[in-house]
Write a structure and sequence with these properties.
This protein is α+β, with helices and mostly antiparallel strands. The chain contains 13 helices and 22 strands. Helix 7 runs antiparallel to helix 8. The chain binds adenosine monophosphate and glycine.
């Protein structure tokens, strides 16, 4: 069977590797993929926003299943478009993808279905927001409504910072803004919680903790993710039940009430306070780097799982995981998440010695003249699974030490809450 994967990050390389192990998959195309995926798949350089060209390629090459990695094409309706041509697509449709595409859409669902989340207000201009701030406690959280690659969220310590954030949002820093979301700051510990759904049934798909901030000690600017570990140290049976009953089930019902269904991965970004879950945000895809961290623990054929979702048959599948601890460290270009250089050679990558429980997933890389060059902010993901987190992290350090890339940096404290305390 031929499979297509949309995206070019570490998440897509991890999906590509897992699919390549399936006996049912004999060819993978990545749109556009990276240097890592080109070793196991054929990279096809197409503009992702040109759905028509993509559809033509998929039909001409008889691709059986298309897996969508990132949120932007989902929010833009790629699933609806390709399904019109009878193409099998794993990923939610445009209506369901608003769970990530519009924070206000999700907040309104939370309100209507009584889903625990931070108290919030939606404001249409600076004057109204200003009045609200006069009666607010700080810190407070200001958010742009639309997709902003993790950058449209400001945690403000005082009114002055809040007004600056609101101005930036209304000035169009994250695209045209009709309104701004202001919400209560929740103090707890975050957790990424995943399910996979075929529209009628769903199954849990693991938990993880990612490190979003660029500096050690979880300080500095927000990034796409500097590393992660799985499982989260917070998960327990009681908490899991609360997450499903109070957050996941009402959300899936809300999507049904809109006349459609949720098919794909759903990633709940949660704040856990005294073993109680609060929804911070939804993502309509796997997390990156959580996906790279989780998939090496999966013992069931990923193709069978994704294909069964597209056929409404997920209940026929038993998803099995090994019970190892998994840790991922992301290596980035110096300067990320601000400006950084591209096209820097990563030397000795072919000398990297991966043991059976170690994995290297490429993100922002390209092959040129037989060398691997960096071409993004997050460049390489090193993952190791082991009986304990400490050993997993040490395995990764051993691997990274073989690499020669003076322009790269990584956080040396990934997993500190499960290792150093
Ligand atoms: P989001 O893009 O909504 O996930 O927000 C990015 C990050 O901002 C989250 O991972 C949290 O660390 C933080 N954050 C967002 N909303 C809140 C909130 N209401 N209270 C505390 N932290 C928040
Ligand atoms: N790791 C955060 C995200 O994928 O959005």
């Amino acid at each position: 069977m031929k499979v297509g994967i949309i995206g070019s990050g570490g998440r897509e390389h991890a999906i590509c590797r897992a699919l390549s192990k399936s006996k049912k998959v004999n060819k993978i195309y990545c749109f556009p993929g990276n240097a890592g995926t080109s070793l196991i798949a054929e990279n096809i350089d197409l503009e992702l926003d040109n759905f028509q060209k993509l559809k033509d390629f998929i039909l001409a090459n008889k691709i059986y299943l298309v897996v969508v990695g990132p949120e932007q094409p989902l929010v833009d309706g790629i699933t609806d478009y390709l399904e019109k041509f009878k193409i099998k697509v794993f990923g939610p449709n445009k209506i369901a993808s608003q769970l990530e595409g519009s924070k206000i859409f999700t907040k309104n669902i939370c309100k209507k279905y009584n889903i625990p989340t931070a108290n919030f207000g939606v404001f249409e201009n600076e004057t109204e927001s200003n009045k609200f701030l006069d009666k607010s406690k700080f810190p407070i959280v200001i958010k742009a409504d639309n997709l902003a690659s993790g950058k449209g969220v400001y945690i403000c310590e005082n009114k002055k910072q809040s007004l600056e954030a609101i101005k930036e949002i209304f000035d169009g820093k994250f695209g045209k803004a009709k309104n701004v979301l202001i919400e209560e700051f929740l103090k707890g510990e975050e957790m990424s919680f995943f399910i996979i759904s075929d529209g009628d049934n769903y199954q849990n798909f693991g938990t993880a903790q990612d490190h979003k901030r660029v500096l050690e000690g979880d300080k500095g600017k927000n990034t796409g993710g500097m590393g992660a570990y799985s499982p989260s140290r917070l998960i327990n049976n009681e908490l899991e039940k609360k997450i499903l009953d109070k957050i996941i089930n009402p959300t899936l019902k809300a999507i049904k009430d809109l006349g459609t269904v949720y098919k794909g991965f759903l990633y709940a970004g949660l704040m856990i306070i005294n073993n109680e879950p609060f929804l911070i945000e939804y993502n309509v895809r796997m997390g990156d780097p959580e996906c790279q961290t989780l998939l090496p623990k999966l013992d069931t054929d990923l193709f069978e799982i994704l294909n069964s979702c597209c056929e409404n048959q997920l209940k026929q599948i038993e998803i099995k995981w090994n019970n190892k601890k998994s840790l991922c460290i992301v290596m980035c270009s110096k300067g990320y998440p601000d400006t950084y250089k591209k096209n820097i050679e990563i030397k000795n990558i072919d000398l990297i010695d991966l043991k059976p429980n170690d994995f290297l997933f490429h993100a922002g890389t390209v092959f040129k003249d037989n060398t691997v060059l960096s071409n993004g902010g997050r460049v390489l993901n090193f993952v190791s699974i082991s009986d304990n987190f400490s050993e997993a992290r040490n395995n990764i350090y051993r691997i990274i030490n073989n690499l020669s890339w003076s322009d790269g940096f990584y956080r040396k404290d990934i997993g500190y809450k499960v290792i150093d305390q």
